């Protein structure tokens, strides 16, 4: 284990949205703050800062993680995807498209975190029930929408997936 004093910084190297970042960070810096302040990826929102609202969710090695509950140094040598990594070739990710079509966002504060959890969820649930979607969303707070449009949007993408349209984590349909 690396021993560092409070004022020291540690060099970390990781891949975010396919790009390699090598930065020096304070050991106590949260991953959410690192993404926003050091990497300029402010699409990851910070709400409660203690693991309750889900707004800061990103994918770390493919798993949905609350970035306010992880130190940046713990993310060394991982691959991270943030909401900025979803759209590809100037096309929105199918989930982003469906959120627009189903009016699944209003202020949009919760949206990046819900999108990232939904990507992971749909990767492991090819034919989810509405109850499973609601269970997944139980880790996310949305103050605006009432969740109806969000559920519809995820169901829409799931049904396209079921029809054989494979959706990968980078937003491509293949
Ligand atoms: S800001 Fe991380 S869970 Fe709320
Ligand atoms: S759209 Fe405003 S908090 Fe969800």
From TrEMBL:
The keyword Transit peptide does not apply. The lineage of its organism: Bacteria, Bacillati, Bacillota, Bacilli, Bacillales. It comes from the Bacteria. GO terms for molecular function: 2 iron, 2 sulfur cluster binding; metal ion binding; oxidoreductase activity. Keywords: 2Fe-2S, Iron, Iron-sulfur, Metal-binding, Oxidoreductase. This is (2Fe-2S)-binding protein. SUPFAM superfamilies: 2Fe-2S ferredoxin-like, CO dehydrogenase ISP C-domain like. Residues 10-86 form the 2Fe-2S ferredoxin-type domain. It comes from Effusibacillus dendaii. Pfam families: Fer2, Fer2_2. Pathway: Alkaloid degradation; nicotine degradation.
